[in-house]
Description:
Its EC number is 3.1.1.24. The chain is α/β, with parallel strands linked by helices. The chain has one domain: Alpha/Beta hydrolase fold, catalytic domain (Rossmann fold, 3-Layer(aba) Sandwich), CATH 3.40.50.1820. Helix content is 46%, strand content 16%. Strands 1-3-2-4-5-6-7 form a seven-stranded mixed beta sheet, sandwiched between helices. Strand 6, helix 9 (213-222) and strand 7 (226-231) form a beta-alpha-beta unit. The model has no long low-confidence stretch (mean pLDDT 98). Residues 24-26, 91-92, 145, 148, 184, 210, 236 line the site of ligand LWBT4IAB.
Amino acid sequence: MTAVDVHYVVEGSPDGPPVLLSGSLGSDLRMWAPQVAALTTAGYRVVRYDQRGHGRSPVPPGPYSLADLGADVLALLDRLQIRRAHFVGLSLGGMVGMWVGQYAPHRLHTLTLCCTSAELGPPSGWADRAATVRAEGTGAVAEAAVQRWFTPQWRAAHPERTRDFQDMIASTPAEGYAACCAAIETMDLTARLPKISAPTLVVAGADDPATPPAHAQRIADAVPLARLEIIGPAAHLANVEQPGIVNDLILGHLKENS
Ligand SMILES: O=C(O)CC1=CCC(=O)O1
């Protein structure tokens, strides 16, 4: 597990409480654009970053593990001299958040886990997807991915934004995407969920076909200080489809636990 220096952007009050935003497979830090104004206006120092293998972060050869992705977060906090942060992660980002909550709990004030899962099988599905991407590129999986990310109604109402997200996925380096599929294929976060001590907000999209509400329920049942919110209409990228609801939930959680 060797950390890489991931690409990041910091916005908001330099002295505000830090909030780290960690994104999904196939995304880059632009996926959090709907959260930035709400968090910075409320006085937070917002740190967004690209997962390794994604966006403008380095692409070391895979496979990656969640320990690798978690080590990148700890190294980023060290680089920014942040002792503890509020961590908000969606999907793969939420998995990274659970890893940090389990193995480096002292680095977290709170955890917000959006549209994620502690166990997302079958493993063969991730191996198959990685093989497709290595053979044909990320463009081969981008259209199917946006169909999981957004409800049909949202896609119909926002064709340009849907295309932009599809382009974001298609521009993700194939090796980075495939190597992160391996991290999901091999992850095992369930047994240690009770070790997460951070106050945890779990948010699920009611219409999410990728990490459905039942997965969020399992996390909320196992994490001692967790609370579950199911919101809709929203598919996998609920932070984009329902930014107002998600922002209010995040801000409420941070304020309750500062
Ligand atoms: O399959 C998808 O695109 C949904 C997803 C699973 C993990 C992740 O980060 O995104």
